[in-house]
Specification:
This protein has three domains: about 1-80; about 85-165; about 175-335, 2-Layer Sandwich (Alpha-Beta Plaits), CATH 3.30.70.270. It is built from twelve helices and six strands. It has helices at about 1-30, 35-50, 60-85, 90, 95-100, 105-125, 130-160, 180-190, 215-230, 255-275, 295-310, 320-325; strands spanning about 195-205, 235-240, 245-250, 280-285, 315-320, 335. The chain has a six-stranded mixed β-sheet, with helices on both faces. β4, α11 (about 295-310) and β5 form a beta-alpha-beta unit. It is elongated and about 80 Å long.
């Protein structure tokens, strides 16, 4: 709940900041200050492209567009050194924080150093400004405080990384741990000579375009709870994409995994229907074969799921190595749900 509240607060702050920056840009344009207006507009572009503004901004091309707005902001700040060293002095204070949030650390550090050097040089030219030394002192102090905040953020991220094993929306295990966990299960299965299967579950969103993304996302926590109720204590499930999940079933052969997948798929369809959502699901199953690794096993399940959806969705599809080789991904379908 704390994480959801944090997201809600950041979203509202982002929207409020965007509105404020657009208002500043419009006011400066009316007052005849085009450079400040353009800077405020570039900052507004950075905000609106951020994931805190909307969850869909995590996907391309939004991060790239956000970085382009940041480059535009830097160019405008550099331009201000020629029009007057402190025309945009207050905007300089945010450069380190914005830089380390949007671009790789090495690039952010370089951009910050360049801005600092140019600021110090510019003060030597601005002999008409009596308080120029106080300005540069305040700027350097702000950069120092920003550096401390960035260090604390990175330190916190590294300290909490081992604890972030679950997706906060669905409580499924994080995708970052899937390959490592699957590799361990494959090694255990081969060592003990037991079966192992995986199930990939995906919503057939192409069959229900009338349901907006917001409605689909609102049901994801219930889907996560349902999956948790259907697996054994030593099974694990992961959220591998926005609308896809993967379940690892140690000790389960492909035939048994198909039956389990059908139970899960039908149960989820009933859950969605009970919430008035005309959504269907498909599942793809892959069993561990000799020579499989974590990547190949995931790819097999993904191919089976894709084949199920290509056949109309609302069905379970098992992966077959010989079927894939002979018929371009076609494997015997287990049949659509009634």
């Amino acid at each position: 709940m704390a994480q959801l509240a944090e997201k809600f607060l950041l979203s509202r702050l982002s929207r409020a900041g965007f509105v404020a920056l657009i208002a500043i840009a419009a006011a400066c344009a009316v007052l005849g200050e085009p450079l400040t207006s353009a800077t405020a507009a570039a900052a507004a572009g950075i905000v609106i492209c951020g994931r805190s503004f909307h969850s869909s901004r995590e996907k391309n091309p939004w991060p790239r567009i956000q970085q382009l707005f940041f480059v535009a902001l830097l160019l405008l700040l550099l331009t201000s050194f020629w029009t007057g060293p402190w025309t945009l002095s207050h905007w300089l204070y945010a450069v380190p924080l914005v830089a380390f949030a949007l671009v790789p650390g090495s690039i952010a550090a370089l951009a910050t150093i360049v801005i600092i050097v140019l600021s110090v040089v510019a003060t030597q030219w601005a002999t008409g400004l009596a308080d120029r030394h106080q300005m540069i002192s305040a700027f350097l102090l702000t950069v120092l405080l920003s550096g401390i905040l960035i260090f604390l953020r990175e330190y916190k991220t590294r300290q909490l990384a081992p604890l972030r094993r679950t997706d906060e929306l669905t409580q499924a295990a994080s995708r970052e741990y899937l390959s490592a966990d699957l590799h361990k299960e494959i090694q255990r299965s081969e060592r003990e000579g037991t079966d192992m299967s995986i199930i990939m579950i995906g919503l057939d969103t192409h069959l229900s375009d009338n349901d907006p993304d917001e409605d689909i996302r609102s049901i994801l926590p219930r889907i996560g709870r349902y999956l948790h109720s259907q697996i054994r204590d030593f099974d694990t499930y992961y959220r591998v994409a926005d609308l896809q999940f993967l379940v690892i079933l140690p000790g389960i052969a492909t035939s048994d995994a198909i039956a389990r997948a059908e139970v899960i798929r039908k149960g989820l369809c009933t859950l969605l229907e009970s919430h008035g959502m005309k959504l269907t699901l498909s599942t793809g199953i892959a069993g561990l074969n000799i020579g499989d690794n974590a990547d190949s096993l995931q790819q097999s399940a993904a191919n089976a799921l894709r084949r199920a959806q290509q056949q109309g969705g609302n069905r379970t599809q098992a992966y077959s190595a010989w079927g894939q080789a002979s018929s371009h991904g076609q494997a015997p379908a287990e049949g659509p749900a009634s």
